[in-house]
Amino acid sequence: MQAARAPRGGRSPAGHAVLRTASTSGCLVRVDEGALLRVALDHEVVVRVDVSPGSSVIRDVPLASLWSLNGRPLDADVE
Fold this sequence. Notes:
It is a single chain. The protein is of the alpha+beta class. It is built from one helix and six strands; from the N terminus they run βββαβββ. The strands form two sheets. It has a four-stranded antiparallel beta sheet, with helices on one face. The termini are close together. The relative contact order is 0.32.
């Protein structure tokens, strides 16, 4: 996935979300919820996945958004 900065007033509570976009077009096969939970807990972030497995995805269209629990902006290079 690629990162894109959410516009001010975006979908996160503080407007500091980092959007994760599809790097290619195709079909989302699976989401590793356990890995996402570990990353969220380790880095104190909220991860919201906006696309379900089986969905068609288009390159550069957001799949998920992340934001910090402490309100600090995240780096757009979050992996």
